[in-house]
Amino acid sequence: MTTPTTALPSLSLADTDPADLTVDAVVIGVHSQEGAEGAAGELLLASGAESIAAAFDGKLTATLALLGATGGAGEVTKLATLGTITAPVLVAVGLGGEPSGAAPAPDTLRRATAAAVRALAGAQQVALALPLSDDADDNGALTLRAVAEGAALGAYRFAGYKGKPAVGRKNPVSAVSVLVPDAKEASANAEVKRASVVTAAVARTRDWVNAPANLLRPPSFADEIAAVAGKAGLDVEVLDEKALTEGGFGGILAVGMGSAAKPRLVKLTYTPAQATTTVALIGKGITFDTGGVSIKPAQGMWEMKSDMAGAAAVASVMVAIAELKPSVAVTAYIPIAENMLSGDAYRPGDVVTMRSGKRVEVLNTDAEGRMILADAISLACEAQPDYLIETSTLTGGQVIALGKRIAGVMGSDALAQRTKAAGELVGEPTWPMPLPDEIRKSMESDVADILQVSAGMERAGHMLQGGVFLREFVAEGVQWAHIDIAGPSFHSGEATGHWSKGGTGVPVRTLVALLDDLAANG
């Protein structure tokens, strides 16, 4: 059984008066305004809603206030128009306080748009009359991009495996038009096309992460990646357990030996003409993580189906760049294994010979991600890329240190800062973390070249231990970044902003933005 593919709404531009549009609903923005001494004040309509306000004879804000609207960011208020405008439903979405610039911040727009479109499930066609920056610089493009991305991601809903549709469940919005001054403008249409490609990559990542682990084991996951990548025109190579053995991939084999579904390594290559910068992308693909002999607690273990979120993101990014065509050569290395408990599973105390030739003493079989990533990093460095970027649900320490929203980034200082900037640009925040020398000292082994985790430190600085371990396998002269997405990659609560319940698709948009930066600036 292949993973269900989620269809996102079609995105288009329109320049018709929103009061005259023949759609199921029109979305406008409202700002909150503080009154005297911080008391709630009157609502302020955001730009884009002028003709609709006129149609309501200036009574729109008062009516919305009577319905409870406050203008708080992401708040959704619905109003039946009763023929006042062509669309039967008007939706006001809160954008927070009135911005000092021409438009709200892009991520405010992205999250608000997603909330509005999600609330309109059951409608087919929706128009967005939201405030967009008319700046000639990048900010104008970023606000349009944010609205388009929010509309698509807000409509995401994993297809799942239900035999019968849930009673009363409404279908997501199927078509969204964004109102702009000129619907034929080439740059605006390019932004909408880009948003469609990138959000499709996010949706594909979410689909894979949300799939149950019994239906997405290493061989089938590798086959699905190979199929979509081949269709996109990428060069594809899949190493099975025999090829991994011949290639000396001891880390991947050690982790995968406990499962009947044997490990794989997928290599995807995108090589545009005249590209002068080379990048290696690596994503952790543990399709399920029991912890192995160092078994995890039963509570919450089901979420470990998401331990392949890094691999899903990297594979989806490769498919996206095959269509976006940035001028940078990118090769992805995706190690895939299932960390299971059996008579063949690797054990604490084992010494594993890695692809690089280094020997690792295993202390905790639940620190398996770094084992498969180290082999992939070694293989990638053999091609001497200019940059190496790896992402993984590596450590619970990331959640302890930075929470569920902010990813940790470690590695070369310059690339870590560029990664942080890319995340800020798209609303996927990261925070640079150190790689202290004392942690490396605590990873000295009596019998091998390095310990897999720090001796005697238990979980202290566990996120940093992962980064220090991976650094050992990065070749000298290669700028690298490790993005720990253990928290942000999976959202167990109800949908919020542009995040759906389950897989979030983090850090797909960060990686695409970072590759754009590397293509433009080397």
From TrEMBL:
Its main location: cytoplasm. GO terms for cellular component: cytoplasm. It is found in: Cytoplasm. Binds 2 manganese ions per subunit. One of its GO terms (biological process) is proteolysis. Mn(2+) 1 binds at D289, D366, E368. Keywords: Aminopeptidase, Cytoplasm, Hydrolase, Manganese, Metal-binding, Protease. The active site is at K296, R370. PANTHER family: CYTOSOL AMINOPEPTIDASE (PTHR11963:SF23), LEUCINE AMINOPEPTIDASE-RELATED (PTHR11963). Belongs to the peptidase M17 family. This is Probable cytosol aminopeptidase.
